[in-house]
Amino acid sequence: MSANASQERNHGYQRIVREILAEAARVDAEEDELYGDARGDELPEQLRTAEGRKAALREAKRALEAERARQQLQQDADADEVVAAGFEGSGIPLTLDPAEIVTRNSGQRGWLQAARRQADAHRKEQARPVPGSRVARLLEVERRFSQNLQVEVETNDAYRAYKAVGVRKDGRRQGRKFPVWVPPEEPTGEINLTDPDSRNMLETRGFLQGYNAQAAVNEQHMVIAAEICVVNPDAGNLEPVLQAAETELANAGVTGTPEVVLADAGYWHTEQMQRMAGRGIPVLVPPDAHKRHGVRPGRHAGMYAFMRRALNSERGKDLYKRRQAMVEPVFANTKFNRKIYRFHRRGRSAVRSEWRLITATHNLLRLHQHRIAPLAA
Prior knowledge:
This protein is mostly helical.
């Protein structure tokens, strides 16, 4: 769904830096006009005497000592906890464990994808409101650009160290030959200045600036869970949406596991599907999009062939044909009947709250229109 932001406000790093410098020059000019020869940073009245400065210093020392004592208590409380090793230069705790990164011979690209997912998860946990001030948004976007570049540098360092001394899953040593990677001089890509959390996403009619709205729906068209992500396409969202649905059901006192999970081809994620199947939850996700003619390259045998056989069985066909009739009416009702095409709030946390409100009112309307079947004569 569309965000409350325009694609025209997607800017690169150079544009953001130029605007920050222009804003700083504007502020300097205003201060020169306001203060004249004065610097504008003269001491306040209470600090212009020795006694006033001593009193302020004593108060500052008391505050610092209290903060130091609080930090020491926190360190003592955390001393016994196990903290995963990572990299802190970017401010994002990256845990680049080769055993947890599924590269599929993708090499450094697989490591970068894993690091970006961790960075996105960290920002999701630390989600904060979008600043109202344009200057504050400029600084926030610049911070994210610098953070993204540092994540890329740290990930490359970890990958090179792994290739130099790492061991494959089968016990063989990794090769030491890999291309030299030179970090870019400045961050790449674009970030939206109006809503930095939103993304330029592909939809059926082109690209839009927005969010990927996710929903778990039952056979009665009731939304069980509603989540927001900034990743397009849907790959990687299957298990998180299921976990959100299970959490909501548990909070409502509903126990047990889903009879079956149905999703379209965009949700295919081998590792997540295997974990769900290991929990005893059947999963039906076609390995090929309905628009594709033939088998997707690289998806011939193994789990792909098994899923095709399952979907071609009578039971599989009967189950999967319910998916479109279950979830598509929810989005159709939201967009076309209720005319909700875009979010009004900005920032991932605020948009998530708005999406959950939209789906909650959808459920209320469904309950309001529910009719009890008449008793048989």
